[in-house]
Amino acid sequence: FFLCLSVFFFNATATTEISTLSLHDALPILVLSGTLDSLPFVVELNGPGGRIDATGDLVLSEQTLAVRDLEAELRDFNAATFYPGLLPTELFGTLRGDAILDSRRAGRSGFDIELGESFVANAPLDSGVGFVVVSDSMIRSEYTLWGPGLVGSARGNFGLTGTRRGVMTFR
């Protein structure tokens, strides 16, 4: 998926609405409406990597760029389309969370994911739940996946700089 958004910063509260119409299945439909410092959005992405329908708020200010209240529905999402080293996937589920970049403090984000019936490397999954939190140079995550005759879970922390260490454990 390719999404290009030009952002202009204004010091006004006028209402705006931006909409682009998809001319081909691989192109996004993006609708933004609201005041210029916080724009509710609706995104529909459909292409060779699957389909993502998302809503949320894009926060734009001098110090902050954020996505808040993100809710994205994944349909037949294949992560290997974007990261060729990954195993092929067919993911169906929901991603919810926030991501905040602020010039006054370290960026932070947190996302919950719930998977329905999906496939990873052609192996079926009945369902899955998990979360990932990124803050203060650390990634903290926990996942549990259920499949036919399988329960897998992973949890741990990873450092994003040389000053922190983390371990991911599997059961």
Can you describe what's shown?
The protein is mainly beta and 171 residues long. The chain contains no helices and 13 strands. Strands 1, 2, 3, 4, 5, 6, 7, 8, 9, 10, 11, 12 and 13 form a 13-stranded antiparallel β-sheet that branches.
Annotation keywords:
13-stranded antiparallel sheet; 13 strands; 171 residues; mainly beta
Distance between the termini: 34 Å
Multimerization status: single chain
Strand content: over 45%
Note the run of SSEs as H and E: EEEEEEEEEEEEE
Flag low-confidence runs: 1-27
Q: Mind telling me the C-alpha Rg?
A: 18 Å
How would you classify the helix and strand content by structural class?
A: mainly beta
The overall average pLDDT, rounded, is: 76
Count of discrete alpha- or pi-helical segments spanning 4 or more residues = 0
Query: Shape from CA axes?
Result: globular
The main pleated sheet reads as:
13 strands, antiparallel
Helix content: under 10%
* Number of beta strands: 13
What can be said about this structure in brief?
Helices cover 0% and strands 65% of the residues.
How is this fold's topology laid out?
Layout: E1 15-20, E2 29-35, E3 38-47, E4 50-60, E5 64-77, E6 89-102, E7 105-115, E8 118-120, E9 123-125, E10 127-135, E11 138-147, E12 150-159, E13 168-170
Antiparallel strand pairs: 1-2, 2-3, 3-4, 4-5, 5-6, 6-7, 6-8, 7-10, 8-9, 10-11, 11-12, 12-13
